[in-house]
Design a protein that fits this description.
Catalyzes the desulfonation of aliphatic sulfonates. It catalyses: an alkanesulfonate + FMNH2 + O2 = an aldehyde + FMN + sulfite + H2O + 2 H(+). InterPro entries: Alkanesulphonate_mOase_FMN-dep, Luciferase-like_dom, Luciferase-like_sf, SsuD_RutA_monooxygenase. The protein has a single domain, classed as TIM Barrel. Helices cover 40% and strands 16% of the residues. The strands form 2 sheets. It has an 8-stranded parallel barrel, surrounded by 7 helices. Strands 5-6 form a two-stranded antiparallel ribbon. The longest helix is centred in the middle third of the chain and has 21 residues.
Length: 389
Amino acid sequence: MTDKKLDFLWFIPTSGDGPYLGSSEGHRPPEPRYLRQVAQAADTLGYDGVLLPTGIFCEESFVTAANLAAHTEKLRFLVAIRPGTAAPAYYARLATGLDRVSDGRLLLNIVVGGNPNELAGDGIFQPHDERYDYAEEFFTVWEDLLAKGEAHLDGKYVKALNAKLPFRPVQAPRPPLYFGGSSDAAIEFAAGRVDKYLTWGEPPAQVAEKIDRVREAAARKGREVTFGIRLHFIVRETDEEAWQAADRLISRLTDDDIAKAQAWLNSQSDSVGQQRMTALHGGRRDRLEVSPNLWAGVGLVRGGAGTALVGSPETVAERIREYQDLGIDTIIGSGYPHLEEAYRVAELLFPVLKGKATDRHDVRFENIATRPATDSARPEFRTKLATAS
């Protein structure tokens, strides 16, 4: 058992939500009222923050976070910066503005991107590894602006001539930078630039190997990096109930649904992390428990983070502590649907995890308002895969 501090963030489903993967049954569109419900639940229950994903099928993360910040008190917001979708000076103004209006509650997630077709729509055409060269120049300008209020770079990819930033963020010299990427180029970029390296939920041995690579790369640059993991959660009072809930989550999927989703992911993505996720299950229902209590069913139809910890609070806490022993100090969790599962995880799992306060868990799950927004789901959100985050 470990006594190390653990930060636990939740997920804001800005591309939509529901009780079944790959199905429009019970779908909840990402309207502002519903997203506020999820954020306020996370704030009340003691989560340390929330992740807002990015992508063409997600509500814009900076705008959404600004809205949610006005309706929460302590919650921190992990918001994506996508180099190339806007100039570094503009992203510097966005980040500074959001950090100021949220009173220093901003975290920033660097998302270089793993879908060349989507990136082309944003005007980004560099091949995979070159995108990290671009990001290096981008963040040279961005960091100088936040730390010093001015920047000048006549680079190969980025030209910012005497850029100015008259306002300072609340957090000095800047909000913390998070990042996830599994390729060699991504790890070299992370080692020299970010504060926290994020991995998707791979088996502990694979996570350990990745952490070692990042640590070694950071040490070569004279830096230290901390680590987090992105996981879904299916927590119930018993292991049996949790596995039943996992089966229910994919109960509306046909084999054809899975085949189409896997073909789409394989054809669209050049992400090494996505390739590692897909390799865990190979699109097969009969090999979903890829490590004890680590279930890859989410990744059958969802891009990005595709694994869930499944079990009783005691079982899931034991699995979390295995990751903590590797160096993980931050969890970014989610569950379908995100409102109800935020309560389940907080009420069942938090008391078992040492160091999480329980005196704030005074709203029982059965008392929450669970009725989703009544607006009909937009077709594009019913049919497209969730963004990889």
